[in-house]
Design a protein that fits this description.
Blueprint lengths: L2 H11 L3 E6 L10 H5 L19 H9 L3 E10 L6 H24 L4 E5 L25 E2 L7 H7 L10 E10 L1
Parallel strand pairs: 3-4
Antiparallel strand pairs: 1-2, 2-5, 3-5
Amino acid sequence: MTDQELIRQAEEAGFAAAAVVPTGEIPFDASFRPYCEENLCGKYGVNYSCPPDCGTPEEMARRITGKKRALVLQTIWEIDDYSDNEAIKAAKGAHNRTTIALAKQLRSQGLPGFIVGASGCALCNPCAITQHQPCKFPDLQYSCMSAYCIFVRKLTEGCGMEYDCGQGLLAFFGMYVCD
């Protein structure tokens, strides 16, 4: 599948913007990992897709660079109050559901790959790790850009996407990583 076809399908799925980049051009910065350890999202140590269980920054980078390209995906949401955690959580959830739907579509067309989400995996609540059970959806489970230690601002600016979209708007980013 061509890069242009990937971008077209992403836009048809509802993404505000999409771009394809070689995985070797994705900027990683392991110094971001301590932000996950602060556990502001509440998923550190209680979600297979989040640190420490998802892997080290180096392992996560190798997972991505083990594939050839990444379809970078952006959604933009109107947010009246940036401290409204419920509205932000709902927007992230919608972003990730759209990413999952696109991944299923691309897989059905013969393009295997994996998802990088806008937040840690939320397919199960709570995550099966909390009951010492295996992941129920290993083919759909996704880690967030932060868990991969991706320097999102640099990545999106390199893709020609706005990181800061202006007053009242909030952008979320994810990827579909494939060959």
